[in-house]
Amino acid sequence: MTANGWLQILIFLAVLIALMRPLGLYMARVFEGERTFLDPVLRPVERTLYRLCGVKAEVEMGWREYGVAMLLFSVVSLLLTYLIERVQHILPWNPQKLAGVEQALAWNTASSFTTNTNWQSYVPETTMSYFTQMVGLAYHNFLSAAVGVAVAVALVRGIARKQSATIGNFWVDTTRCILYVLLPLCLVIAPLLIGQGVIQNLHPYTTAQTLEHAATPQTIAQGPVASQEAIKMLGTNGGGFFNTNSAHPFENPTPFSNFLEILAMFLIPAALTVTLGKMSGSSGHGWAVFACMLLLWFVGVFCIYASESRPHPLLHGVDQHVSASQAGGNQEGKEVRFGITGTALFAATTTDESCGAVNGMHDSFTPLGGMVVLSNIMLGEIVFGGVGSGLYGMLVYVVLAVFIAGLMVGRTPEYLGKKIEAFDVKMAMLYVLIFPVVILILTAISVLAPQMGLSSLNNNGPHGLTEILYAFTSAAGNNGSAFAGLNANTHWYNITLGFTMLAGRFLMMIPMLAIAGNLAQKRSVPPSPGTFPVNSSLFTILLTGVILIVGALTFFPALSLGPILEHLLLQHGILF
Amino acid sequence: MAEKQSLWNPAILSQAAVGALTKLDPRTMLKNPVMFVVEVGSVLTTALLIQDAINHRPISFNLQITLWLWFTVLFANFAEAMAEGRGKAQADTLRKAKGETMAYRQKADGTVEAVSSSMLRSGDIIKVEAGQFIAGDGEVIEGVASVDESAITGESAPVIREAGGDRSAVTGGTRVLSDWIRIRITSNPGETFLDRMIALVEGAERQKTPNEIALSILLAGLTIIFLLAVTTLQPFAIYSHAPQTIFVLVSLLVCLIPTTIGGLLSAIGIAGMDRLVQYNVLAMSGRAVEAAGDVNTLLLDKTGTITLGNRQATEFFPAPDISTERLADAAQLASFSDETPEGRSIVVLAKEKYNLRGRDLTNMRVEFVPFSAQTRMSGVDLPGTSIRKGSADAIAKFLEQQGASLPRKVSDKVEEIARLGGTPLVVAENTTALGVVYLKDIVKGGLKDRLARLRAMGIRTIMITGDNPLTAAVIAREAGVDDFLAEAKPKDKMDLIKREQAKGKLVAMTGDGTNDAPALAQADVGVAMNSGTQAAKEAGNMVDLDSNPTKLIEIVEIGKQLLMTRGALTTFSIANDVAKYFAIIPAMFAGVFPVLNALNIMHLATPHSAILSAVIFNALIIVALIPLALKGVKYEPKSAASLLRRNLLVYGVGGIIVPFIGIKGIDLVLTALHLA
């Protein structure tokens, strides 16, 4: 670790904290339906859209109606994407004449983009046409992000409102999120990325004659990358235009573009904590939640940075120390232009934020570094998490933390004036349960099934276990990053991972919406000195503790046979 | 009743030991999902153990594991049985008070028949005479009697029960000491207050309270998570070529699921009810006890709760040219025959301040003039002098009749005292007004501190009084209540409760009169005084046998303590798992992967001793925490944040550290005894 590295991390934090507050307050205005500075331009567009679609913007929905609207919308867009993939060969913008996508893969990809996961079992540049990328996939990059934010806002309304039967209008929330938040931000970030050298065209692929292999010319993929890149990061989607994702020089050419991309994935999830504070009327609570997320994120960055900076124990006689003149540490699978700091920062952020874009190979991290990226996802994608989904996931943990804390201060628990009762706990536990259920059961089946689960595994031993565990964890957490080392483009993995992604998104959203609806209709108890404050540092510590304990207790046995065992064996010179 | 039993009362312990076994019935266990999982695990390992024994495989380790798993279930059952046993012991004393007594029932034709108390039905009329026991709960419809209620309240002084008014309720099992009363029975056998309370403390009819249900869901959820983590560990183990035995997997599972809180949860609830009984409070439901912990607003009646029931003389203000001694002397003389607390307080004040002792009145040919509603005065006639004391109006009239009048200075003083919330009594001797006695509401000793305690808990107190706002403000300030409602009529009290509840607050109040009944029913926690009317007792959800309104404070504390104990043990139980992982996981896999011994940070001797130590610790901690579960965690009135900080430190951080020490200790013992 170097002073330069830490300086980069600190500068990043300073920029983030400076930007998140105005954005968070702005989003609160957007979702409270108040006037914003973009109204003169966007309000007419918004009204026209509602008129065209027959949306009654002023009519609010109860949680069930909200959930049904969200599910219907998602199912229809999932089917649409599936269809586009299957028939892309007869659609325009396909200069490479790519064939229609095979069934299991098309299913997997449609599920993946609908759920904001962007798990990619395929190599984009040889599988998806420009049309599929722009209409089928980029469409979801906006919509799935907006759905996540809408649902999170609905939950915040549930917390803030008193004796209300409704939690907002799904169509309005989604539309306003895209129009007022995502599109304007993309319009700022995409040109900045183009300025750094990210490409934006519809050209056929370039064929280059290299000196080395004159007989086999190199094909250089092209495409409308910058426009996708902006929403890929802002919407914590993470699906790369190219197979190597943000490690590809056309997606992420410079340290500054790297900085921009990390910032873009961080921005909305962080700002949403400010929105939470504003809308719930307790800005202190918003900051306390942010502090918990920041703390967990920082520990992740620190651990990855520390373990990747260390010299490899089996490399002797080579100077591996990090210094001004050499990157040092474990450089395997990392881009030299980002270095260990840029990769650690990116890796911690992309796994915490449920983004899944990568600028390095997680499979090539040291066992401990790999364990941290895996653990980040295992915490449930609530450390900032996906846009919207991170906030509502975190709020479910807040409900649980408040429940235990409430008991310990001798009151029946209440959260910002709302009593937490059996129904809320039931839904919160359901939410918490679904995640490990899918991950552990499907991983267990995979490791026992040599034909289905193990045949496409490149590594054996604990490293192989980690690879499979990572795949299901990434899918359930709607992260989408791959540990690699596992070919997931098989029928077994395409189908099961597809279901895992849907479960990790929609099965978890429903109990969460139920909590939102249930909280909204409750009376609010005014705070007294006897109520446990949710805006204190003590609360932050408690919340962090609950998250770590639940996460650690659930996954420690699996981790001990995966990365922990691998790390210990590595010290004895055993590799996988 | 209300005796505190020693925690380790041998009779209760032996009963509980039997109870622990009978509770193994799976139908009973099913009510507690966490412990049910442990029982299923124990049955599974027992079956496998028998199989091993038949096949002559070594069983030493597996036998020990199986035994300790059974102990885990038994210890949890024991805790519950013990709490029930303590409740039963309370109930038995209550029941003894009831017993079977003879009742003299009045038939429709007016004749009286002797029946057993168990034959009485609601609506029956019985007559109870001096020396007889009252056969059932009821309401006095005729007569006045002094009643010994010590069997219920432990208070030896007899109380007056009379028809009409607010002291008409009688409780079965109490004894009439003098006179006779006619009582209308108000409950059928098995439905009396006592019966309901007996059922509650015995735990038989105990229903889970809302918060208990919510916590049970949390615990069930955690159990499922651990069930999942452990069952999927086997496939991972097989993949890693290190498969585990069922014994080890069940051990890991039982250690991880929250058995500590799962085993003690119902004991905590029963013990909470039990503690209330020890304070002589009967609660109608566990829900009421929980609500008590949440109370935001406490309504306190001024008279009897904040102030002593009666006003007391605190000062003498002589008229111009009259010495204070003369006034005091006359006032005392006029009050000797006055048996009211006010009259007595005048005698006492004169004695204390001016050392005026009682004198031999027989030689003075005195004639006492009792208070009458017509004159509204009382006093004494001596030869040649008549001394009177009474309200300013009455004395003014008395003076006018004799051609005199109340001096200006005296009537000014009267007004001033009235303004301050006191009651002025004017004393006159023949045609001379001697001065004014200041009677004042006296705030109960120690009340201020108790109200401060409530404030520290975040509870707002509101004093209810029929006095004018000025008077009310004076007392309110003196007592240290947060707010007051003056000139309150019964309806105002009701409105106040509704107003507070509309703001989302939980309201507690005490009451005894029939006109309190609607408000008692509306309040979230309504504590009726045992001395009050039947209507009040029916409307409230608790009854205080001592009829001490300030006991609300203890009730609130018991409610809070109950919730805190649950929270603390849940935290402790979950925090324990960290150490158990570090004991069991390396033990499971160190055979195949010796490098995993790096996780054996406790340096436990062998894999077998490590697993066994964790299982034993997990079982013993239940027993070790029974006293805490029954007594409740310590409660101090502090802000929520500081309470949480303390409890997190003790039960959270403590919960992480304690098992490391405990498991290591057990491991050392096991190794020394060559058990593993």
Largest interface: A-B, 67 and 76 residues
State the share of residues found in helices of chain A, binned by percent. 55-70%
Lateral strand order in the biggest sheet of chain A: 1-2
Strand and helix order of chain A: HHHHHHHEEHHHHHHEEHHHHHH
Report the oligomer: heterodimer
C-alpha Rg of chain A (nearest Å): 23 Å
The number of E-state strands of chain A comes to 4
Amino-to-carboxy terminus distance of chain A: 26 Å
Category by helix and strand content of chain B = alpha+beta
The biggest sheet of chain A, with number of strands, parallel, antiparallel or mixed sense and barrel status, is: 2 strands, antiparallel
Sheet bearing the most strands of chain B, described?
Answer: 7 strands, mixed
Instruction: Bin the strand percentage of chain B.
Output: 15-25%
Mean pLDDT of chain B: 85
What does this structure look like?
The complex is a heterodimer of chains A (576) and B (676). Chain A has a domain at 389-570. Helices cover 63% and strands 2% of the residues of chain A. Chain A contains 19 helices and four strands. In chain A, strand 3 and strand 4 form a beta hairpin. Chain A is globular and about 75 Å long. Chain B has three domains: 10-90 and 200-279 and 556-673, no CATH class; 296-306 and 444-545, HAD superfamily/HAD-like (Rossmann fold, 3-Layer(aba) Sandwich); 310-442, Calcium-transporting ATPase, cytoplasmic domain N (3-Layer(aba) Sandwich). Helices cover 52% and strands 17% of the residues of chain B. Chain B has a seven-stranded mixed sheet with strand order 9-21-20-19-10-17-18, with helices on both faces. The mean pLDDT of chain B is 85. At the A-B interface, helix 13, helix 14, helix 16, helix 18 and helix 19 of A face helix 7, helix 10, helix 20 and helix 23 of B. Chain B: InterPro entries: ATPase_P-typ_cyto_dom_N (IPR023299), ATPase_P-typ_P_site (IPR018303), ATPase_P-typ_TM_dom_sf (IPR023298), ATPase_P-typ_transduc_dom_A_sf (IPR008250), ATPase_P-type_domA (IPR059000), HAD-like_sf (IPR036412), HAD_sf (IPR023214), P-type_ATPase_bsu_IA (IPR006391). Chain B: Belongs to the cation transport ATPase (P-type) (TC 3.A.3) family. Type IA subfamily. Chain B: It is a multi-pass membrane protein.
